[in-house]
Specification:
Layout: H1 11-14, E1 21-27, E2 32-34, H2 44-55, E3 63-69, H3 70-75, E4 86-91, E5 104-106, H4 109-116, E6 121-126, H5 130-136, E7 142-150, E8 158-159, E9 167-172, E10 176-178, E11 181-190, H6 194-197
Parallel strand pairs: 1-6, 1-7, 3-4, 3-6, 4-5
Antiparallel strand pairs: 2-8, 7-11, 9-11, 10-11
The structure holds NADP nicotinamide-adenine-dinucleotide phosphate (NAP).
């Protein structure tokens, strides 16, 4: 699509069709993820993990894309958005929602994914919030779920849906600690239920 022509001239990436997107989220032991449109905790190692994972690409000319809901976009401090080094796509029903140049809105998750098919983009990450996670976790193109498990219970007003019946645990890091908060990095794989494929 014309909107991506500036990004890269590497035809290897222009022809690449991604079959899966991945999800990245931090949740507490009750699957709480947010309070008052903000994160309930501040864990700098997790913010670095998020930045490194969502930014890394095999060649510098190619970017990853991050897809998020309009409320999550608005929860990012203005000075830090768009998330740099990544193509930011915001889901919203408002066709006039303003975005900085080189970043986009979309009226649905499928439209956002379609928009990226011809783009020189390596990985696509769904980065929240709850409304978008909920849809992404039931989507046939869902691949991996990167979960930072914050091993405490916070006062939250936004939660992930229960997901363990349809995701299989692939790996789990050692427990780390920062400011008396324990957390670990888990990776799950989506097992799309057969009965939904019919
Ligand atoms: N812990 C974490 O890792 C993490 C990560 C991200 C966010 N969060 C937290 O999650 C909370 C926000 O989550 P949320 O569920 O309230 O909001 P959200 O999912 O970020 O945004 C919801 C909005 O996105 C738009 N939207 C969602 N799905 C759409 C679709 N399929 N098509 C078109 N537009 C769509 C709608 O915008 P319009 O109303 O404009 O139509 C909707 O009102 C915050 O507390 C945030 O801090 C936590």
């Amino acid at each position: 699509m014309t909107m991506f022509t500036k990004v890269s001239s590497n035809s290897q990436w222009l022809s690449k069709v991604r079959e899966k997107f991945d999800i990245i989220v931090a949740a507490d032991l009750n699957l709480g993820i947010g309070k008052n449109n903000a994160l309930p905790w501040r864990i700098s190692k997790d913010l670095k993990y998020f930045k490194d994972l969502t930014s890394a690409t095999p060649v510098p000319e190619v970017l990853n894309a991050v897809i998020m809901g309009r409320k999550t976009w608005e929860s990012i401090p203005a000075a830090h958005r768009p998330l740099k080094g990544r193509i930011n796509i915001v889901l919203t029903s408002n066709p006039n929602y303003p975005m900085p140049e080189g970043h986009f809105i979309s009226s649905s998750l499928d439209q956002a994914l379609d928009m990226l098919i011809p783009a020189p983009v390596d990985r696509v990450f769904i980065i929240g919030g709850a409304q978008v996670y909920n849809e992404a976790m039931q989507h046939p193109s869902c691949g991996l779920l990167y979960l930072t498990q914050v091993r405490h219970v916070f006062d939250c007003d936004t939660f992930l849906p229960p997901f363990k019946q349809v995701f299989q645990l692939l790996s789990c890091s050692e427990v780390e600690t920062e400011d008396n908060l324990e957390f670990c990095f888990k990776v799950y794989e989506f097992n799309f239920p057969e009965y939904l494929m019919a």
